[in-house]
Write a structure and sequence with these properties.
single chain; 439 residues; mainly alpha; two-stranded antiparallel ribbon; 14 helices; 43% helix; binds (2R)-3-hydroxy-2-(alpha-D-mannopyranosyloxy)propanoic acid
Length: 439
Amino acid sequence: MILRDAVRVLVSNWDGAHTVPSRRLYPHQWSWDSAFIAIGNARWSPRRARSELLSLFGAQWADGRVPHIVFNPRVSAGSYFPDQGFWQAKAPSGAETSGIVQPPVHALAAWKTHLAEPDTAFLRRIYPRLVAQQEFLRRDRRSPEGLISVVHPWESGMDNSPAWDRPLRAVRTGASGFTRRDLDSVSADERPTDRDYAQYIELATAYRDSGYTDPGAFEVEDPLFNAAYGLAESTLAKIANTLGLDAEPHEREAEAITLAMVEHLFDGGLFQARDVRTGELTDTASAAGLTPLILPGLPADVAEVLIATALDRFQIKDLPLPSYAPDTPEFDPARYWRGPSWINVSWLVWQGLKDRRPDLAATLADSVLSAVVKSGFREYFDPYTLRGHGCRDFSWSAALVLDMVAEHSLHGLKPSGREAGQKVWSIGETHQIGDHALT
Ligand code: 2M8
């Protein structure tokens, strides 16, 4: 049964206070993974969801940044590259961390955790930390246009997306003398190339050597990152209201970033990334460009255009959202962020469709669940064959499936039965696992 299997993955990847994305490939704590994992854990163990978020924010830096990796000192250095020796960074708590960030989807995770089991003490504890996370981005990363930039492809979360090919042309490929560990467990044709890695290390080294202050040769405004930032502000408004605090500054900020995104990034039927160094839009077709659908204040006409693009270029009636449009020469159905379907990006778009087009949201959820039924909780999937790629037992795949199933039962949707003889998910079946009943 899919719900039990999802919980089994999360339990076996649990490390006492947080969850690793994958035992072998990613044996530490990752920032946006923990947010997605908390969203899933909230469905069966809100206690674990709170712990996931609080442990991550325990490694927050004094400047408010939430590092993209918090290293587990009990895991041998060298089991992941680049390790703590490379980053040379420490949080005030003493935790060894990286020095870059990831999309700020954590306010949403905190809010969903609270909704699953109301806990104002938890909200009170995490709210100032979530605010500091946003303040870091405003202070260090905001352009005159009002948009937030990322200074490394790893910060976008969609590491080797074709959207970064052009901005990366400005980056040297000189870094050498390092050993990749990802290829120990995943085949090279499903991962970034050695050239990509040389550039990642070049950029991370320059940023580290500047004391994590100066953006190097890569500085882009990514639509997914900015949408997450905007959604965080709308969510902080809800949290502030619940705590009896002033919500208005958050509402204003959410509105401002939404307008700035529409004005500067919306082009050609979807949101583009903008290269801050050249001022040019990337003119690409990443699924990141559909994620602004999660912004509650997105103008209805813009949302309609995005939905038309999702139907036409990303074929969401038939496929579990590809990470890059299949009608492009760059599309690769098996290589990492260059085309395969990823459950977190599909989940974000699904969130954005739920109120606007519940029929399409249901279809998308159905495709995602079909991929999991066929191939298990893999890291990513060929959108056409649903074959699984990357690592197995991947935490956010399990977590977000739990969330999708739980919400769908609320909509009273029926299992599709697309896989002959196999239930895609069962509605009305209840399992008592952890603190909560899974329905
Ligand atoms: C992937 O990124 C890491 C670097 O941060 C890697 O390739 O080693 C990405 O998919 C990223 O979005 C994700 O957070 C991370 C852990 O799952 O893996």
